[in-house]
Amino acid sequence: MSTVRIVPAEAFDFCSDSIAADKSISHRSAMFATLAEGESIVRNYLRGEDTMNTLRIVKALGAEVTDDGETIRIVSQGIREPEDVLDCGNSGTGMRLFCGLLASADGHFVLSGDAYLRRRPMKRVTAPLRAIGAVLDGRQNGELAPLSIRGGSLKAFDYKSPVASAQVKSAMILAALHADGPCYFEEPELSRDHTERMLSGMGAHVRTVDLRTEIHPVQGLLKPLDIRIPADPSSAFFFAVAAAIVPGSRAVIEGITLNPTRIEAFRILERMGADITYTTTEDRYEPIGDITVCHAPLRAVTVEENIAWLIDELPALSIAMACAEGTSIVNNAQELRVKESDRISTVVRNLQRCGIDVEEKDDGYRITGGELKSATVDSHGDHRIAMSFIVAGLVCGMEVTDVECIQTSFPNFFELLSQMTEVVRED
Ligand code: S3P
Fold first, then answer.
1. Ligand 1 centroid distance, CA of 1 (Å)
2. In the chain, at which end, N or C, are there fewer CB atoms within 10 A of the end residue's CB?
3. What number is the average pLDDT over the span 131-137?
């Protein structure tokens, strides 16, 4: 289990066009290429553990994948029954989206993953898929992986999801592409919409009005993808918070998706007082551009709307809240409890170790800004908890244990961080 020690940083001016590529879009580009006719071209694919597992699964399902280190080319041969269990590693996105993709494919498939993923709830996808005729099972009657799928025919549906989850929405949209009629999916709040944008770009009929998405089954195959994956706002946000909390600092992040369902955390940081500008440079599948964040004194904020738009950034935002003046409140974020760790509990416990006054609630927390103190905190195997507390270390110094998990989403995190401070690794 490796540990890092972070030394407090002086004011920095950071500019990068090599923040990790977007994880959500990378997973989808590999998976959706299996639905296309001809060669899909994917540049800047995220080479993190989660998305490399997805690429291996796509290969195991019969796609021809070539990779020259820069560009990945994927030619689908239709979905073939794999010879072995499909290992999603740590990735809930991988497992849940593959459930939807494979529910109608010819064959038998078993999805598994690491000890953390095997504890995460899967009924949110297995139940609605079973309701439309999918043959799916798993431990605790389909709640826990390993999951087994016997692909078959699926009935058209009109499903109202109780949870605003892009993973559930995407699994159902993928199933709908091979259902026996037009399907409708409704969610309580809009979640990230990469699946809808990408599949529409590939020629599928996927339209959303308000919170209701209509999906028509596809006849045959879709157009191949030709995509350069933008930087991941959830990864970039660690550097945004770093610039916001280290006096005199600035971070410029280039080539990042500016999809509104993904940059809400930057908007919240702006509401807290940080000086942030956005510049759109292109629009292909989604808007892409640059974000500049400059330090300014932060004030407390209440966060309770559009939670799905900032669910992955809340741990890093909690560090900004700990540095802000006043008491910040996060409400309606119970989904944090079923992420890579129970992020309400891990954020609260770790901030308390750093001397911050925090109160845990069922659906979030209250954080009163104060003086962050150096401590030893554990990631609980959760990449975003590890990176959030490393960023806190830029203010006060920090020791963070069990940091290998950062490889799941941000392989060059330490390389970029070393532009700001000294990182001592104790492997
Ligand atoms: C993701 C959706 C989110 C997010 C996850 C990636 C996706 O999960 O937390 O990191 O790519 O669809 P939920 O949709 O379950 O909230």
1. 26
2. C
3. 98
